[in-house]
């Protein structure tokens, strides 16, 4: 049976009250946020950047971005109003720099070329049409902007057991992409210079990054896989 947005909505309405205190903050969400922030810093330094955090939940990650990069302006977007409401204190204490928006990652409520960075942390497996979501993320990025997407890494036995067996038994028929499927989604959406890194740990995750096409990189997908022992892929 397929997975739909109604299931995601019901799950996160239930979870919204306790979300910020759950053990996954320590096991998965916190480590994945740290990995993303370090990549944003490496790539953009202290430049003033506009960031869209798609599937932002209660805005925890958005607030961490602001602490690490005080010149950033972050839009946190989520499907579920109750999750956004769970972060009410955050939105109001960073009124001009951290803005909540209710919306769907498959239909982003933003104009073309609006952001320097789109982040998406631990949300992507909930999207029934993942290609559409990545294509939308490409659309709202400025040419040369960067998509940084983290989701559970399910290609190795431990990750497969956690995400495809345990998480699916709790969340239903969600879909954690394989590494190669994620690369294809990025390439089909028009991303270039895509690279991937697997972060090991109790809950392994995959960080995939790609650069939005510019006129000069049109038609030049290029993949770099930085997992030790994994073949480099290149489709110049
Ligand atoms: C596990 S939480 C992750 C929250 C946050 N990104 C983090 O890392 O702490 C997944 C979030 O994705 C949101 N979500 C699910 N489907 C969505 C969709 N189609 N568009 C936008 N957000 C969605 C859920 O409402 C939920 O807040």
What is this structure's SSE topology?
Elements: H1 5-15, H2 24-44, E1 50-54, H3 60-68, E2 73-78, H4 81-86, H5 88-93, E3 98-102, E4 115-121, H6 130-140, E5 141-152, H7 157-171, H8 179-189, E6 192-199, E7 205-211, E8 223-225
Parallel strand pairs: 1-2, 1-4, 2-3, 4-5, 6-8
Antiparallel strand pairs: 5-7, 6-7
Helix pairs in contact: 6-8
The chain binds S-adenosylmethionine.
Task: Summarize the structure in words.
- By secondary structure, the protein is of the alpha/beta class.
- The protein has a single domain, classed as Rossmann fold (3-Layer(aba) Sandwich), CATH 3.40.50.150.
- Helices cover 38% and strands 22% of the residues.
- It is globular and about 40 Å long.
- Residues 222-236 have low confidence and may be disordered.
- Bound molecules: S-adenosylmethionine.
- Residues 5, 8, 12, 29, 55-57, 60-61, 78-80, 83, 104-106, 121-123, 126-127 line the site of S-adenosylmethionine (SAM).
- S-adenosylmethionine binds next to helix 1 and helix 3.
